[in-house]
Amino acid sequence: MPRLNFTGRRRIAQDHVKISVAADNEQHTFSARVNLESYGFPETAAVIVEAYRQLELARYEFGTVTRPLPPPNTRLTEFGTLDGVRFRLKVISIDEPHGRLLGVADRITPTNEALDRARRIPLITVKGHDLGREIWKVDFSDEPILLVNYRLANKHSLARSPIFQSLVLPEVLRAILTRVLLIEQYRYFEDEDDWAARWLRFAASFPGVGGVPEDEDSELDNEWIDSAVSAFCQWRGTDRLFRDFWREAEQGS
Fold first, then answer.
1. Contact 35/14 with Cβ under 8 angstroms?
2. What pLDDT is stored for residue 160 in this prediction?
3. pTM (predicted TM-score)
4. Which helix or strand (DSSP H or E) is residue 10 part of?
5. What is the pLDDT along the chain (253 residues), one digit of tens a residue?
6. Distances from the Cα of 157 to the Cα of 19, 21, 130, 178, angstroms
7. Runs of H (alpha helix) within 101-168
8. Is the dihedral of CA 123, 128, 130, 134 positive or negative?
9. Which pLDDT score, from 0 to 100, does residue 22 have?
10. Cα–Cα distance between 225 and 176 in angstroms, integer?
11. Nearest-CA neighbor of 65 among 104, 35, 97, 95?
């Protein structure tokens, strides 16, 4: 790989680069879907995808801008687990000046196809409700319901907003897991129809969380809940959602 010239490079929006990981015979692989039509890159420019974690790096050639072609091997053998693995995409000139970096998208968090299919199952109903001066609350009268104040905003628009997803959803998860483990003292996964079991399976599905502590120990339960909420935040990219929202808010002020 020639030395790269960074002059004049363009930032590629992460919405135009989708990286998905999947398990293939207990070995993780990835696929990439790229949309570069709006950037005006030379047709022959090379497309490179890099997987990295701290000092670990693997590079994959994905053809050219107009002829994207995945390599025959996209296995992520260098990394073992996928915890903390991120991706970047580079567009590199093969004409003069050779090796010039034309565009880059960095810090791309991959999606996991199998886990995402499981996590698309709606776990909680969102309902509009007159909450007075409160914006939201979780109602535990039966199955948990997320109530949002319809006097302030449309329930669907509010629930989908970056500020709500970054600040509220992690606390909704924390409140529900606290209810299940510390108040209801429920810790079983098997019942497909039980809402508490569905939430426990959801939380345990994230990398590094593991199974619910077997013994009723409030300290261990709280540690497990913290781990689940942290993993949820990593999956949803809540820090990125909030950072982008806040930057736009500051620029508009």
1. no
2. 81
3. 0.56
4. strand 10-11
5. 444 444 567 899 988 999 988 876 567 889 999 999 999 999 999 999 999 988 889 999 999 999 989 999 999 988 877 777 899 999 999 987 788 999 999 989 888 765 555 445 457 888 999 999 999 999 999 889 999 999 888 888 888 888 888 999 999 999 999 999 999 998 887 777 789 988 998 888 887 888 888 878 889 999 999 999 998 888 888 888 888 888 888 877 6
6. 27, 29, 16, 27
7. 113-119, 155-160, 162-167
8. positive
9. 81
10. 10
11. 35
What order do you get walking across the sheet with 17-24 strand by strand? 27-34, 17-24, 111-112
Locus of tokens 């991706």: 87
Q: Which residues contact 150 (CB under 8 A, 6 or more apart)?
A: 128, 129, 130
- Helices 169-178 and 195-204 pack at an angle, to 10 degrees, of 120
Beta bridge partners of 127: 147
Q: Which CATH architecture has domain 10-112?
A: Sandwich (2.60)
Q: Which residue has the tokens 């990125």?
A: 240
What pLDDT does residue 5 have?
47
User: ∠22-26-27 over CA atoms, to 5°?
Assistant: 60
For 244, the enclosing helix (H) or strand (E) is helix 238-252
Burial level of 204, CB count in 10 A (0-12/13-18/19+)?
A: middle
Domain assignments of the chain as residue spans, ordered by start:
10-112, 121-252
Q: Is the dihedral of CA 197, 203, 80, 26 positive or negative?
A: positive
Encoded amino acid at 6, one letter: F
Give the span between the Cα atoms of 192 and 2, in whole angstroms. Answer: 55
